[in-house]
Amino acid sequence: SLVTTNEMLKKAQEGHYAVGAFNVENMEMVMSVLKAAEEMNAPVIMQTTPSTVKYAGLDYYLAMVRAAAQRACVPVAMHLDHGSSFELAMQALRTGYTSIMIDGSHESFEDNIALTRRVADACAPSGISVEAELGKVGGKEDDLVAADDSPYTDPQQAKEFAERTGVTSLAVAIGTAHGLYKGTPKLDFDRLSAIREVVSIPLVLHGASGVPDEAVRESITRGICKVNFATELRIAFSDGVKKYLHENPDAFDPKKYGKTGMDNVIHLVKEKIAVCGSEGKA
Ligand code: 13P
Ligand code: ZN
Ligand code: NA
């Protein structure tokens, strides 16, 4: 059955690796992420953004990931990514998500704390994990090309934020952005180390699509315990489907082109798990 991200991320923190968190959009992507995690014997987080939730509903995604977890011999968590309101966070909690992000990064420091704290307090009795964000990860979750105009996380503010909210993990802004980058992203590793020095809870890296493997590894060395991948999975799945339909224009069986999309996602997720260092950590 599904687990929370508390235990997973604590183990990752102690073992100096990161757990891969993969955004899923449909059943094929859920199946692919699970297959990759099993083949790598790695713990895994599947997550859905509000726009994904809007597409099919929290209950649909939870049911698919729960089915995956029931078959799995690796730990699987179901996470709400970028929870956009207290209400959506509570819906995810009631539905049975085992980990919830409340994204108050667009609010003022004090309003972000107040909102995050409310969610953390509501989730604490059931032991459900809560991730928050301080500073702004560039771009929007559904953008293909990232914008990099975001203010970075301040270490002292991060320390105060973690203490006052009681969250179980914290997403930091150190130069990554959602979507693919125009050039090579430059990450502020010194800032990450400064945050790690004063914040004890697991730190999360968003916007990892398009970040060179070396930079992801360096961020893990400096304290990142969860790495989010979305855009590259969407591209991998869609490219597989497009390729099949291009080569077989008369195809009409969704299982046929779904398979080529899945093969791409499985291959990609296995690579990302290797970069995260979570292979064999299940
Ligand atoms: P990418 O789309 O850049 O991989 O970002 C993923 C993410 O941060 C999801 O929250
Ligand atoms: Zn994100
Ligand atoms: Na990105």
From TrEMBL:
Its cofactor is Zn(2+). Transmembrane segments: none annotated. Keywords: Lyase, Metal-binding, Zinc. SUPFAM superfamilies: Aldolase (SSF51569). Zn(2+) 2 binds at D103, E133. PANTHER family: D-TAGATOSE-1,6-BISPHOSPHATE ALDOLASE (PTHR30304), D-TAGATOSE-1,6-BISPHOSPHATE ALDOLASE SUBUNIT GATY-RELATED (PTHR30304:SF0). One of its GO terms (biological process) is fructose 1,6-bisphosphate metabolic process. Binds 2 Zn(2+) ions per subunit. One is catalytic and the other provides a structural contribution. InterPro entries: Aldolase_TIM (IPR013785), Class_II_FBP_aldolase (IPR050246), FBA_II (IPR000771), Fruc_bis_ald_class-2 (IPR011289). It comes from the Bacteria. Coiled coil: none annotated. Zn(2+) 1 binds at H82, H178, H206. Its EC number is 4.1.2.13. This is Class II fructose-1,6-bisphosphate aldolase. The active site is at D81. GO terms for molecular function: fructose-bisphosphate aldolase activity; zinc ion binding. Pfam families: F_bP_aldolase. Dihydroxyacetone phosphate binds at G179, G207, A208, S209, N228, F229, A230, T231.
